[in-house]
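target protein:
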Amino acid sequence: MSQWKSIITLLVFLLLPLSAQLQESIKGVTFKTLVASTKDWAGDTLPAPKEGQPELSIVQVTIAPGARLPVHKHPVLNGVYVAKGSLKVTLLDRKETVTLDEGRAYIEVTDKWHYGRNEGVNPVSLIIFYSGIKGVANTIYKDEPEKNKQ
């Protein structure tokens, strides 16, 4: 029986690339990976997922010109797609900034205090994908407990 498990495991690993090729060759359908990484936009390795019931959320955020998000962190894994505009994000512990550009996707930082500012003249539109845990807030605001009920 152990020999059969080894053969089946080998077949699965050999067929995985084939299934990816088949997915990408569906007539009239195009697949494009926007971002895939084991590291966040600051270059740090992503933490292991936390225990609990997984809960996926997709949130659209619109940030007016000149607006600044409060300092916050995400205790869960998440990614962001910048649908419109660009957002300057500052990572507090390193005093680093990165500009998230329109039409690009990014792996967000986890458990790191940061904030974003729209320095443009048009609203910024973000689509955020949270891979959270049921009952755990996706965003925690620093020094603002009333906002931590998200």
In short: DSSP finds one helix and nine strands in the chain. The beta strands are 54-63, 72-73, 77-84, 87-91, 96-100, 105-107, 114-117, 124-133, 140-141. The helical segments are 2-24.
